[in-house]
Amino acid sequence: MGGHVGRGLKMSGDGVSRLSALALASVALTLVCVAMPPDAHSTTMYRFSVDELAYVADLIVEAEVESALPEKAAGEVYIKTVATLRLTRVVKGDLIEGDLIRVREWGGRLAGERTDVPAAPVYVPGERVFVFLERERIGSMWRTIGMTQGKLTLIEEPDTGRDVCLRLQVPRELERFDPAQVQLPAVRRYSDDLVARIADDLSLSFVPPYQAIPGLPAAKDRSFFEAALAAGQQLDPRWPQSRAAEVGR
Fold first, then answer.
1. Does 224 reside within a domain?
2. Domain around 239
């Protein structure tokens, strides 16, 4: 995967950690299968397209991470981390700039214990992000769609002031994100281009081809299926609903 940071962290001459990253040639990346805690989305990562991320997301925003605090509920085995994000731009959703939201993800360190989930996104205070989110099924918190696929880090390009979208694997141990330590790649993808693409999809009410997405809530899955069917889009032949629709035609 591009943009790995961690054990291979580069060190500059003054001993300051220097992050390296690769820009996205496409936001859709292939992720390896990972072992997940039992009630996480699924044991297999699904590869999302940009169109699917935009369609499935309840909220698409640019935001700044204000805090990231670990938690472990009574009786729980695994640690999670709750990040507080202040919204700076809303692309999809009914919130507004300046709103604060909390995003809960697997993994964290607490009281000498540690939970690591390789594909879980890590949010670090001071980091600016472009994220695709969905509401948790219970409560008011949010979670990132597709785990690391749904989170991009924004770094301002010095010469133009434009924000570059990067997928970084940020070390959980990092106390505060320093964008000056990120090396921008030669080939860059800009947030305003991504926003324009998503805005076009939303204005046209574009529905991508229906796919069986593991972990998608049943109501949202059914809505996706019916919208794709009505739009004449291709239907995933592996899904029972698709086979039933084909028979009924």
1. yes
2. 207-249
State whether the Cα torsion 47-242-225-38 is positive or negative: negative
Q: What is the pLDDT of residues 179-202, one digit of tens each?
A: 999 999 999 999 999 999 999 999
And the tokens for 110?
């607490």
Task: State pLDDT tens for residues 76-134.
Answer: 888 999 999 999 999 999 999 999 999 999 988 888 888 888 889 999 999 999 999 99
Look up tokens 């924000």; give the residue: 163
Domain count, the chain: 2
What distance in Å separates the CA atoms of residue 213 and residue 145, rounded to the nearest whole number?
11
